[in-house]
Amino acid sequence: MKIRIKFRKYGVMKFIGHLDMMRYFQKAMRRAEIDICYSEGFSPHQIMSFAAPLGVGVTSDGEYLDIEVHRSPSTAEALRILNETMVDGVEITGYVKLSDDAKTAMSIVAAADYELSFKEGYTPVATVEQFADGIAEHFTKPAQVLITKQTKKSEKVMDLKQLVYDFQVSEKVREDGIAVPCFYLMVSTGSTDNLKPELVVEHLFAAMGLSYDANAIQIHRKDVYAADGDGYISLGDMGTAL
Amino acid sequence: MRKLALTDEILLKIEKPARYIGNEINSVVKDKSKVAIRFAMCFPDVYEIGMSHLGIQILYDMFNKREDVWCERVYSPWPDLHRIMKEQQIPLFGLESQEPIKNLDFLGITIQYEMCYTNILQILDLGQIPLLASERGEDCPIVIGGGPCTYNPEPIADFFDLFYMGEGELQYDALFDLYLKMRAEQKTRAEFLHEAAKIPGIYVPSLYEPSYHEDGTLAAFTPLFDDIPRTITKQLVLDMTQAVYPEKPVVPFIKATQDRVVLEIQRGCIRGCRFCQAGMVYRPVREKHVERLKQLAMTMLKSTGHEEISLSSLSSSDYSQLEELIDFLIDECNRRHINISLPSLRIDAFSLDVMSKVQDVKKSSLTFAPEAGSQRLRDVINKGLTEEDILNGATQAFEGGWNKVKFYFMLGLPTETTEDMQAIAKLANETAARYYDTVPKENRNGRCQITISTSFFVPKPFTPFQWARMYPPEDYIGRAKTVNDAVKEQLNRKSIKYNWHEADVTVLEGVLARGDRRVAKAVLEVYQNGGIFDAWSEYFDYKRWLDAFAACGIDPDFYTMRERELDELFPWDFIDTGVTKEFLQREWKHAMEESVTPNCRMRCSGCGVKKFGGGVCYEN
Questions:
Q1: Do the chains contact at A27 and B307, CB–CB below 8 Å?
Q2: For the segment B418-454, what is each residue's pLDDT rounded down to a tens digit?
Q3: How do residues B491-512 score in pLDDT, each as one tens digit?
Q4: CB of B305 less than 8 A from some CB of A
Q5: pTM, to two decimals
Q6: Is residue B334 less than 8 Å (CB to CB) from chain A?
Q7: By CB neighbour count within 10 A (0-12 exposed, 13-18 middle, 19+ buried), where does B513 fall?
Q8: Distance between CA A51 and CA B375 in Å, rounded?
Q9: For B251, which of A12, A27, A33 is closest by C-beta distance?
């Protein structure tokens, strides 16, 4: 039976990298005594795959992993036993059954949306209005927005217009009570055209003549999507409750 | 959610931020307003090493079971963070509360190897706690040392307020209760330490004074007050089955060295190898009942979610109910896809059968630790493993499909000759020959792979070899070269790989292992000149140590090159480990006579630990 699990990652857990999160969930499955399937061979491993790795420092409301189980408790019961064994900063928010022929989350990821905002202790370098003008001027108006992506081996020129599906800015009240500009982006994600949202915001800052301080910006992933006809569907909306 | 001691900016800049955030499964967070004692438990090395240490997990669990105590953990910040903390004056913090350790009541440091001594100073320094105990004020934490290196605490005595000698399970309650009582009575630090020194196993170095002969050897070691004990008796658990054990050990996010459930099956060792400090100071052997172990194994696997379990002891093959335990584990673990790792097993038909069930024969290797190449030298060190044992074990293993064998030896053992060194290569060659004789060509999976590793022997306090001399670094390297040359002459040399350790660090370990109180100055000097993480070869700087010895007027040869007189008073002689000096002297003589002493189950050799009233001494 294929199961999709959705979770939130926040607080200090943002410092735990993707590989360690995989180890964390493997151990969590054993603690919760989920009857997970193992691969064949001399060193069997759990059948488990993650949708899209999350970078260190990034928080998220929409992370996904798919597992295969021999049998499963109800959605409500699974949520309860899993959350009982989570640490602060990881919360299981979804547990659904997928159809037997469902493709893994990893293979169907097409987009993800994010919020990028100024962290506590950092002063925004421009107002919401200025940023909104900047987006209109430097992103919405041009036919092409080319940026050069530096990889380990080569440089790649990308057109942001093809990869950014939504880009807005609005006001958000931070935990310390101060209202700051908050960017919303939906970008291409997955194995072929993966775009980090901070590249887009960094480009905007540069075009506006502002300096981009990565330390000042908290990146928060809201959800991850698969392609669905002309639009997108949240990975969390694809299964059925047990 | 807890606020971290380090900013995002720092945490995202350094390696492995997970080392510093706490929050792990089974870590304990208490309401600080509801506890009376705050304890920071430290392993002075990097997180992944420190988190793998069983002793801390035991004490962490035990302390936190007390409602009035909150024990948290602290490890050495890696040099990248060390630099930042120094620059920005960020005080070292406990992982659980993220609060500065200087504000807590106790800082307990486990001292597992000599080369971490500079890291102890790093902890104090980053903790913003005065390095010297004599300079600590009333509001500083009480700094406690424990662990194997405290069997000679003198080279680090200046840095500690007190040492706890022996197994931690016993006297901490008494220490905490005394602390609470004296704090309520508003007594001073000095008054507390004076009273603490009367608790069994507690050594307060500031209450003792050494004096020296003209030749530099110790003349006397005297308490400063009449009511302070002359000898400190190590503490040991008599009933291991009833002893506390962490049923919910902390599970790190990042891969620690020991990323598995560790099941301690017994403490101590019956073997009596003459070089081995653990084999002497943890006497007598005390087993845990197999039913308790079964229950612990299942509880810990469930509470951690680990995918592997490992047995821990100095010599697992000597555990009397091993077969029953392993049968149980194989049965339970196979069903749950959990791996079993079985270190320190003697290679014989039983262990080979077990290992073939729990590991991939093709990938795994067999380990032998003969420690010396020749039978003569193995008799000197009392390693009761014969060439026949090794070759038979290897032959059976080759028949069972293994083709990788690892050998561990020591060089520089007392009485070692060139023939003994060459015998290492010959033994490896003979083992390889057994492979080619045993396994027909069509069944071979390439060549067999014999790996020899040698380390250099460091004489340790409370062993029969505590009188032995050491050698200069060049001499050690010469010994390794003798082995290497001999390997190259062997018929099966292409099947043999030889690795040896560095020699400089060996000599230093020697100075620190058998040093006295005067050596502390040099440790301090090295730290002040930038020395940390000496246990890591990339950070170890031999010259920095030599310079420090010179600057402090310390002659390292005094501690390493002398063969000590049988009646010399040692800096550690005020400690009573139960094993008497007479027994050690007898064993040293037996070693020189190449005569073997039987193990504790064969015959009691009267080492002295029977007085504790438990363990193997009373098995029959």
A1: yes
A2: 999 999 999 999 999 999 999 998 888 788 999 999 9
A3: 999 999 999 988 999 999 999 9
A4: yes
A5: 0.95
A6: no
A7: buried
A8: 60
A9: A27
